[in-house]
Amino acid sequence: MEQYIVKGGRPLKGSVVIGGAKNAALGILAAAIMADETVQVDNLPNVRDTRVMLQAVEGIGAQVQYIYNNSVQINGKLITDIDVEYDYIRKIRASYYLLGALLGKYHEARVALPGGCDIGSRPIDQHLKGFRALGATVDLDHGMIYAKAEKLIGAHIYFDVVSVGATINLMLAASMAEGETIMENVAKEPHIVDVANFLNSMGANIRGAGTDVIRIRGVKRLHGTTYSIIPDQIEAGTFMAAAAITHGDIQVTNVIPKHLESISAKLAEMGCTIVEGDESVRVIAQNRELRPTNIKTLPYPGFPTDMQPQIATALALASGSSLVTESIFENRFKYVDELNRMGASIKVEGNTAYVEGVKKFTGADVDAPDLRAGAALVIAALSADGFSSISDIQYIQRGYEDFETKLKSLGGQIAKVDNEHDAHKFRLSV
Ligand code: UD1
User: For residue 369, is pLDDT > 90?
Assistant: First the structure.
């Protein structure tokens, strides 16, 4: 199995180009099948999750062709199948976006019910409530969700919880419903706006994405387009946190600084200097002590839950006590035991982590428990004294393209290895 071997202790310095947003890509790749013409998606992050989504799209009969590493063409004209197999859902929950896309286009979809997940129970009741409001019958049987409608009719939907997934799934279905849909209490994340912009570039009529209310006037058909995905807020935030954790100086480029405000604000509170450019943010933390602060995860524009492990890792090196409250997912502190094995001092009670800052981490062998926590552990290792290994890096590969290459370009001493011989060679070489 592949793992990362890291020798820590060097501040990360330099500039790093951020790729396209994974979570926008997952919605956009599903939406792309709704046209019967060729859709080209550029700035596509080439990560495990997007590759699985493309396999799922191919699995139902859409044509998929990579143009370059980060561009793909999709044509949904020849779709023959409305069934999305459990195999894809098991690998990425977001393949349930094909439910909204297929229901909108063909008025019928059968998708495996997503199972339990690593960061807490993740119900999809709001998705199903929305589909029913549009006139679909939704049945759960033998682990499958079967949604069907004679016709989809626009409706007024009020979501009980703010859900990224439900907002996107319903935007997809309602784009091709008859009449107007009004969705209230929707998620406002940058990738919601990106999926809406993408659908509009295919001829949909969606207004209000990025606010609490989205209005959609359904259209009969969607057409081909060429579209470039926005930069990944969380990949950028991860490298920004890496500057703080390693006491380095990193500029993230090809980003939208506004999307990073909640992260920039917290890093500034912690004593980092933030320099915003038009399409870049620089985080300077060299030779300075990090200050403690409190963080609570919230839907956008609040502090993102997907940045919680990375910022908690930085706070674990601050000069004092911090509180980290996780209010989106119930089980997102599984990395804490691993970080404590590297010398951190964090206690978790319920949805709160009590972080007592320590002077430094020490290298250890740890397992990545999930995508973002895995990235946080790699960066912790880059700041730690001595060698670490991080196993289960398939989680990290779900969402970070060329992670170790980018870290190396910033001066990080890291190698991806799949055998003890190469691990040994790396240890001797640094
Ligand atoms: C998306 C992101 C994920 C991020 C999360 C929150 C993608 C592919 N994934 O996940 O990286 O961590 O947003 O920003 O974009 N909920 C319900 N009922 C529902 C749906 C959700 O109760 O029908 C609850 C969830 O349990 C959770 C909260 O709502 O507590 C937010 O979940 P949601 O925004 O739907 O997250 P995802 O779309 O799964």
Answer: yes
C-alpha 271 – ligand 1 centre gap (Å):
31
Ordered domains of the chain (ranges, CATH): 3-19+231-429 (3.65.10.10), 22-228 (3.65.10.10)
- Nearest residue by C-alpha to atom 33 in ligand 1: 163
Active site residue 272: no
The burial class, CB within 10 Å (0-12 / 13-18 / 19+), for 20 is buried
Half-sphere exposure of 54 (CA within 13 A, CB side): 22
CB 401 within 8 A of CB 14: no
| C-alpha closest to that of 108 among 120, 99, 95, 97 | 99
Nearest protein Cα to ligand 1, atom 39: 165
Chain segment 171-196, per-residue pLDDT in tens: 999 999 999 999 999 999 999 999 99
Contacts of 45 (CB under 8 A, 6+ apart): 19, 20, 21, 22, 25, 70, 229, 232, 235, 399, 401
Residue 40 to residues 68, 201, 202, 225, 401, Cα–Cα distance (Å): 11, 11, 11, 6, 20
Measured in degrees and rounded to the nearest 5, phi and psi for residue 179 equal 85, -165
- Given the residues 58, 78, 90, 117, the one annotated as active site: 117
Ligand 1 environment, Cβ below 6 A: 23, 26, 94, 122-127, 161, 163-166, 187, 305-306, 328-329
Structure tokens at 331: 């089980």
Among left, alpha and beta (phi > 0; psi -120 to 50; other), residue 410 is: alpha
Cβ of 412: how many Cβ atoms within 10 Å?
27
- pTM for this predicted structure: 0.97
Of residues 29, 58, 30, the one with CA closest to residue 41: 29
Q: Please name the residue whose Cα sits nearest to atom 21 of ligand 1.
A: 163
pLDDT in tens, 305-364: 999 999 999 999 999 999 999 999 988 999 999 999 999 999 999 999 999 999 999 999
